[in-house]
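Class prep. Protein, please:
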Amino acid sequence: MSKPAPDLSSILAPKGGGRPDSIPQRALTPVAPPPAPAPAPVPTPVPVTKVKAEPRSKSLTLRLTETKYQALRRYSFQTEMTHQDVLELALDQLLERFEKEPSGQGSP
């Protein structure tokens, strides 16, 4: 048993024929504008210290435990900093403490 072919003659125009005017077009049908979305809450800005970029950089692979990685992700998300910026800031602070020690043997 085969289905009878649908009759498309009312919606198909012959080749070279004009556009049928009897079919309402979406652009011509009035559409109500969508309701305005509620304004999003404004997050409080967090001061972010930008790390000064040096002309040349080196790549480094860092292995973290799952716990430390998840903590880094949460901190990065909450402060809107990249992982790179967080780690560079922490390293800068560590090296600054190291250089302030009289013997250069700062404790981590």
